[in-house]
Amino acid sequence: MSITTRTPARPARLRDGPRAPGGRAKRRPRREREGAAWVFLSPWVLGAAVLTLLPMAVSLYLSFTDYDMFEPPSFVGLRNYTQMFTEDPRYWRSVTTTLLYVVIAVPLQLALALAVALALKSVRRGKGFYRSAFYAPSLLGASMSIALVWRALFNDGGTVDDLLSRAGLDIGGWVNQPGWALLAVALLTVWQFGAPMVIFLAGLQQIPTELYEAASVDGAGRWRQFVSVTLPMLSPVLFFNLVLQTIQAFQVFTPAFAVSGGRGGPADSTLFYTLYLYDRGFTASHMGYASAMAWVLLLAVAAVTAVLFRTSRSWVFYAAEEDR
Amino acid sequence: MSSTRTVPATPAPAPGPASAAPGRRPPVQWGRVALHAGCAAALLVMLYPLAWLVATSFKPADEVVASLRLLPGRLEWSNYTTAMEGLEGVSVWQLLGNSLLVSGGAVLGNVLSCSLAAYAFARLRFRMRGPLFAFMIATIMLPHHAVLIPQYIVFNQLGMVNTYWPMVLPKFLATDAFFVFLIVQFMRGLPRELEEAARIDGCGPFRSFLRVVLPLTRPALITTAIFTFIWTWNDFFTQLIYLFEPQKFTLTLALRSFVDASSQSAFGPMFAMSVFALLPIVLFFLAFQRFLVEGMANSGIKG
């Protein structure tokens, strides 16, 4: 919507100008135009086929094999999957670690993003500055630099750890303690609340002010307005953020790698799914096993997305679809 | 700043004490002051890690953990001279050049291929458009790791491991569907009349794309370029699996060698190098923050 407002339609000159004499406005034959479309699409089609669909098929096949990149793959049926589910405690450790992280980080991040967006909505002076400044960590947070800073801040004697121990909570270095290490990684994700915040803010600005006026005429207080106007009107944006952040959270890698020294420690407490996949595939050269893990991840993300979409029918409110 | 332009009407000031009689000083709005104070305080907490990074990169080894003081007692420039030496004989300038090469190539690829595909999806008619568009959207949600291993095997077979092709080539094939979607959304907002006029003047789809649509799409292309640059720059995982020769390392990957180092003496140089690796992103952000924030804001709103 705001896209259209930024590029005002200015076709007047062209429309009012003399029309080309009838003969020149020849319509190209449909087939020729369709051919043009495929020319434009060709890089994407090639990429989708060779770099997306084919690899997915190949990794599905590899997931039923034993493959170490040197010997040709040997078919082992479902063994990778049965081993994963029944004989590999580290695999389950990586699953629970990742789920725990998603469940902690995503709601905290979105709640903070929404709270800050609501606060910024009523700021008049300096809104652009705040918006950009809060957004900055979302771009920087994925970097190895920040991951290393995080490790140092939460390490034994690091600023966060030191402040907490002075306040009487002696943790002894978050990154050394199982449980706390995971929380440190989750806080790094929460720190990057700027991206969903910016999207919330844009969504808030799309809510017609008449709705608030009508609500306050009807005697609705601030909280009531939030529950009855803001939340329903914002629910599509909330849903978008929820889906996007959840999918991203399942794939977190760099901070886990940095915080745990690349090994998922302490005591496998930061052994994220992707970290274990990297370990199996590229450190231990079990490409078949890693392929099976990748497919389970794909199915899990698809399932979670499907569930989110299914539940969305009951809480996401699309007002005036035709307006959009 | 610019966001206010897109808002049709800012809410009228409350008809309470705020709209005081003319000539009298308006009373201090304590709510507003508290709001700004809260925002500023939150901002300080948010930006502390960045300040800490810069400050620590100047600290001598004995000061890094010894005190909570943010500012170094004395500036230790040797952290930077050590960091400049780089890694295993590869200077930091070469690492920087490698990073720029990878990110620059990725930007070129994404801008070209994504705008081409986006134009087809936004404006042209072809069979299977609906299903293909749905498929393209679905690939946005596809976990990168699902295709990682076979892609690695393919690039390995092609002898492209330890080159930059695995990071750059996919971008020329529009595999970053997020940007295709972003540009499609933008193009759909452009007035169709311009292209119709161009067609009447005898422009085919190619000329119409190059001369009419592409120039108007510039904001979306800039957003694509900057995001691609920053995301590729930061993409540790891909660089980790494809590059193994120090000569080929990027700045991001060079930091990996510090991951295992736990000795305090490595702290200064590590964070000096971190500052170096972060600097281009910060500069890009400062220069183009409007495009980034607006681009991100628009991605969530259905056009």
Automatic annotation (TrEMBL), chain A:
Keywords: Cell membrane, Membrane, Transmembrane, Transmembrane helix, Transport
Limits of the ABC transmembrane type-1 domain: 95-308
Bilayer-crossing regions: 36-64, 99-120, 132-153, 180-204, 225-244, 287-309
Gene3D superfamilies the record matches: MetI-like (1.10.3720.10)
Membrane topology of the entry: Multi-pass membrane protein
Chief location category: membrane
Ranges of biased composition (kind: Low complexity): 1-11
Region called Disordered, residue ranges: 1-30
Highest taxon in the source lineage: Bacteria
CDD domains, alphabetized: TM_PBP2
Annotated compartments: Cell membrane
Pfam families according to UniProt: BPD_transp_1
InterPro entries xref list: ABC_transporter_permease, MetI-like, MetI-like_sf
Family: Belongs to the binding-protein-dependent transport system permease family.
PANTHER family: ABC TRANSPORTER PERMEASE PROTEIN (PTHR30193), ABC TRANSPORTER PERMEASE PROTEIN YESP-RELATED (PTHR30193:SF1)
Protein name per UniProt: Sugar ABC transporter permease
Taxon lineage: Bacteria, Bacillati, Actinomycetota, Actinomycetes, Kitasatosporales
UniProtKB/TrEMBL annotation, chain B:
Keywords: Cell membrane, Membrane, Transmembrane, Transmembrane helix, Transport
Domain ABC transmembrane type-1: 96-288
Membrane-spanning segments: 33-55, 100-121, 133-155, 167-187, 208-233, 266-288
Key word Metal-binding present: no
Localization, UniProt: Cell membrane
Taxonomy, superkingdom: Bacteria
Chain intervals for the UniProt region annotation (Disordered): 1-23
Pfam family, one: BPD_transp_1
Topology versus the membrane: Multi-pass membrane protein
Protein family per UniProt: Belongs to the binding-protein-dependent transport system permease family.
PANTHER family (UniProt xref): ABC TRANSPORTER PERMEASE PROTEIN MG189-RELATED-RELATED, ABC TRANSPORTER PERMEASE PROTEIN YESQ-RELATED
Protein name as annotated: Carbohydrate ABC transporter permease
